[in-house]
Amino acid sequence: MRYIRYIFLAVLAIVLVTVALANRANVTLNLLPDDLASLTGIGGSVTLPLFLVIFGGIIAGVLIGFIWEWLREHKHRAAADAERREKEQLRREVRKLKTDEAKRQGDEVLALLEDANHAR
What is the pTM of this model? Predict the structure, then answer.
């Protein structure tokens, strides 16, 4: 299984390097379209190699997906946490009941012994 993982990572690295080498041309990224930038007075642009834009888009998509899933699964984590707290509370309750029962049983035995001693 370890070798399969290494082979997969090696193939992935080769593919990423190939994509990077094939897309070295510079591209200009604009914050807003030209008409909207002139209208609002807000404009910004940056020139980057295309492979950085592609890899940046992939990384942004993965991060957005992770955050989205983390937010979506919040209700499941909250329910699991509530169940864990309830389980601990029930465990403490059972432990307390067992010790109370043991004390009561011990007291009954002592009471029977004391009754037997008084009867003599």
Answer: 0.61
Give the DSSP letter string of 57-102.
HHHHHHHHHHHHHHHHTHHHHHHHHHHHHHHHHHHHHHHHHHHHHH
Task: Please name the amino acid found at residue 10.
Answer: A
Q: Is the separation of the CB atoms in 24 and 51 below 8 Å? A: yes
| Angle made by CA atoms 20, 25, 29, in degrees to the nearest 5 | 100
Contact 54, 19 (CB under 8 A): yes
> CB 51: neighbour CB atoms within 10 A?
19
Nearest to 23 by CA among 66, 56, 67: 56
pLDDT digits (tens, 9 = 90+) for 46-63: 999 999 999 999 999 999
Specify whether the CB–CB gap between 42 and 32 falls below 8 A. Answer: yes
pLDDT at 43: 82
Q: Give yes or no for a contact between 27 and 51, defined as CB atoms under 8 angstroms apart.
A: no
